[in-house]
UniProtKB/TrEMBL annotation:
PANTHER family: P-LOOP CONTAINING NUCLEOSIDE TRIPHOSPHATE HYDROLASE, PARA FAMILY PROTEIN CT_582. Pfam families: AAA_31. It comes from Tsuneonella flava. It comes from the Bacteria. The lineage of its organism: Bacteria, Pseudomonadati, Pseudomonadota, Alphaproteobacteria, Sphingomonadales. This is ParA family protein. Residues 3-175 form the AAA domain. Gene3D superfamilies: P-loop containing nucleotide triphosphate hydrolases. SUPFAM superfamilies: P-loop containing nucleoside triphosphate hydrolases (SSF52540).
Length: 258
């Protein structure tokens, strides 16, 4: 299994939208896919149609109570895609984990040796606290959604410092599989300029596929569906399919699904 953390400490940059839709695209391609919702807001769980009452298990149990992974996994309505949902008690985890000895390694221990899926995506909360540190410590690699806006690069340098810290202390092999530009608006010159600057600065790390600002992507979660199911042909869905194709191209051969 390859584990990909979707992280950026900024809120509202498209982490959850990317997690839901890229996971759906991977499942549609035949990869057995797991989505781990590590944001106490639970937007990935809601966006996949799991209301509060439908969450039988949670990432809180996995991280804080040490429940086995298999007991925290639930199926979704998407064939080939399972989820570890997030519940509100996860908001206490940052504090509860502080006193725990292996506090940054909880998720990595829970995932280690898991054979039931080909790929796992971790939807991170908008902070660089213990939940995100758990995700970065457990992940093979990181996918960073970057919103095309003026301060995009500023936030990124802080994230990259955290990645270096995690590499030196907890997870030396942590990679960055790519940076995905989100909410791109071709009519807005500033967005265009930011996208060019990011590419100048980070080169091939930036995926060629760009996710456009597309209202269908923001409507889909209120129907409890990935955009890829809600409207598979809208520009946003097509962009995520293209991003998934690029992602597969970057996954090392020995980690590819059979
Ligand atoms: P994050 O998880 O980083 O906080 P979200 O994925 O939840 O970000 O996105 C924030 C908001 O923007 C949500 O309401 C979402 O539906 C919307 N959104 C995300 N990506 C797009 C996009 N490409 N076009 C239009 N709306 C988007
Ligand atoms: Mg989110």
């Amino acid at each position: 299994m390859i584990t990909i953390a979707i992280a950026n400490q900024k809120g509202g940059v498209g982490k959850t939208t990317t997690a839901i839709n890229i996971a759906t695209a991977m499942a549609a391609t035949g990869w057995k896919t797991l989505l781990i919702d590590l944001d106490p807001q639970g937007n990935a769980s809601t966006g996949l149609g799991l209301g509060n009452d439908d969450r039988e298990s949670s990432s809180y149990e996995l991280l804080v109570e040490g429940a086995p992974l298999v007991s925290c996994i639930q199926p979704t309505s998407i064939p080939g895609m399972d989820i570890v949902p997030a519940t509100q008690d996860l908001s206490g985890a940052e504090v509860e984990l502080v006193a725990v000895e292996d506090r940054t390694a909880r998720l990595s221990k829970a995932l280690s040796g898991h054979m039931g899926h080909d790929i796992a995506f971790i939807d991170c909360p908008p902070s660089l606290g213990l939940l995100t540190l758990n995700a970065l410590s457990a992940a093979d690699t990181l996918l960073v959604p970057l919103q095309c806006e003026f301060f995009a690069l500023e936030g990124l340098s802080q994230l990259l410092q955290t990645v270096e810290r995690v590499q030196s202390r907890f997870n030396p092999d942590l990679g960055i599989i790519g940076i995905a530009l989100t909410m791109f608006d071709r009519r807005n010159r500033l967005t265009d300029q930011v996208a060019d600057d990011v590419r100048d600065c980070l080169g091939n790390l930036v995926f060629e596929s760009v996710i456009p600002r597309n209202v269908r992507l923001s409507e889909a979660p209120s129907h409890g569906l990935p955009a890829l199911v809600y409207d598979h042909n809208c520009p946003g869905s097509r962009a995520y399919i293209s991003l998934a194709r690029e992602l597969i191209g970057r996954i090392p051969g020995e980690r590819k699904a059979a």
